[in-house]
Amino acid sequence: MKKMTLTLLMITVPLASIISPCSSAEPVERTDISIQQASQYSVSVSHAKREIALELSRQYTRVLPVLQSNINQYNLAMDADLVFRSSGSDTKTLRQSELAIREAKGLYTHTKPKINTVRSGSQAPSLVQFRLADASMLSDWQQGESPLFAFEPDGDDKQWANIEAYDVEGNIHLLDVYQLPQRPVIVIGLDKQQAMREGLAVMRDTLALSTHSASQIKRAKHQVSAFTAADQLISTTVIKQISVKDDEEPWISGKAEIYGIVTGVNPSRDEPVLDIIEMPYLDYSGTEYYPNQIVIHWERYRWAAADLVLMEHDDGTNYKDLATALVSIAERVLQQYPDPEVQGYAIIATITNEILNALPDAWFTNNDDFVDVYYTLQEGETYTNHYGAGGNARAFFAPLVIQSR
């Protein structure tokens, strides 16, 4: 069963820089805005992992004591940089490969500098992990059986012919995609929760920069403050219960991360609103969860209606390009309607469908995967055992009114 961690970070257009704090990093500069281009970098990520796998095979004898001291039945993964540094191993290949991964995914390469510090800032957190593929391998590995070092291939996991892995001699082994190997396997992968957290931070900054100048943000902030002072009640919708169907997944993929994209239109201006929702509770598919999580703040949406798209994070998406592309699509749709009030909330579904239509085929495979979509969630409505349009997600949505003071 595929483990999934669904994590709440609100990213709002046009008020993203007000609702969420600014990111602590400098983005990788990229001028492309095509949503197709936002997901075509998995080859670079896979290549970087291959280089790390080979380096781990070369340094395995040195790092083994550190790995065995930290990997156990409760924790099957360890930060790769910490492994190398703690064992006194050379980190050059690891650092170069991780930089390539960050650039491929549009993540920050350095933390944002504080006042009176150098512009480049300090080194960004480590993303790469070494993970024992399954707890059943732990005993044999701890007793001295030599492992293989594997990583996810490129492209659609339904089209994978095999899993590429290396032994301590650097020899290649081709493993079955769905049958868990009998021999211990250490997977070179990303800390997906960290990668998604950083990716959504990039999206937050990019959405803010793509939609408003500093003066517009200042004016919008004043409007929000006035609204809060005048209105004591905040109308929201919460997810009371949610589950996602269990699908067969390759053993090497490990846990997943799911996030939501809430789409709608600004109540005071003809501009799109895109909220990105992170959810750190939905651990496994096929299991019911009861988060009681706020997903929609209705003061941000015209016509008291919004859509919710559920997406699953994987390794191949460039987040900076993705955010730019999402804004571009939503704005293009709105420009087609000189008077949005004539069409009303039907425009929201058009925005959502245009986003879904623009998703590359790879996003339905092994990049940021489409999970399901909820059309026309409305303020004040309760939805019990409500299936998404694709029938993959089932949720219980309920209204919640909060006193602002």
Topology, element by element:
Blueprint: E1 4-6, H1 16-19, E2 25-26, H2 42-70, E3 77-79, H3 80-86, H4 92-105, E4 110-111, E5 128-132, H5 138-142, E6 148-150, E7 163-166, E8 172-175, E9 185-190, H6 192-211, H7 214-230, E10 233-244, E11 256-265, E12 272-278, E13 293-297, E14 305-313, H8 319-335, H9 340-343, H10 346-358, E15 369-378, E16 383-387, E17 393-403
Query: Order of SSEs, N→C?
Result: EHEHEHHEEHEEEEHHEEEEEHHHEEE
Give the DSSP E fraction (strand runs of 2 or more residues): 15-25%
- What separation lies between the terminal Cα atoms? 44 Å
Shape: elongated
Radius of gyration: 22 Å
Low-pLDDT sequence parts: 1-40, 113-121, 213-222, 224-230, 362-367
Helix content: 25-40%
Please work out how many helical segments DSSP would assign.
Answer: 10
Domain count: the total is 2
Number of strands: 17
Strand arrangement across the biggest beta sheet: 3-5-9-6-7-8
